[in-house]
């Protein structure tokens, strides 16, 4: 494995970490409705638990209401029960075969809890990025130890790794700040 291979591997893994972090952020509730909020809900469908998106169409009606349209009429009650029993604190209402899920307004205390959660997720993502930096630096040191690269190559490689790490951490900080702003907006 060469230094370029180490950099490519690290860069790919960092991009995957950031993508996972962005995915986690979509599941954290802001004041507005977001269909991704219901992604974690599973419904019983013919004896097995399946994600809500596989038994119903989930869409936005307006900025504060999500609509859930079951594909089968008999699934309405099960979907409504699953949403109600989830830990999201939502109270769905049936209107014929359409289920409306209004987003209750968030209190100031709840908004602060959500910002703490966002910061925690951000810290976890930063730790993952730093672990990738450590792994890459150890791989480069191993190449130098095995006499496959020079110490000058090691210094350049470590500087490049640090530059990429700083860039990714700044990206995470920006995502955290943006999400906090969304949560605190009334």
From TrEMBL:
Belongs to the RRF family. GO terms for molecular function: ribosomal large subunit binding. Responsible for the release of ribosomes from messenger RNA at the termination of protein biosynthesis. May increase the efficiency of translation by recycling ribosomes from one round of translation to another. Residues 21-184 form the Ribosome recycling factor domain. The keyword Cytoplasm applies. Residues 142-162 are annotated as: Disordered. This is Ribosome-recycling factor. InterPro entries: Ribosome_recyc_fac, Ribosome_recyc_fac_dom, RRF_sf. It comes from the Bacteria. NCBIfam families: frr. GO terms for cellular component: cytosol. It is found in: Cytoplasm. Coiled coil: none annotated. One of its GO terms (biological process) is cytoplasmic translational termination. Keywords: Cytoplasm, Protein biosynthesis. Its main location: cytoplasm. PANTHER family: MITOCHONDRIAL RIBOSOME RECYCLING FACTOR PSEUDO 1, RIBOSOME RECYCLING FACTOR.
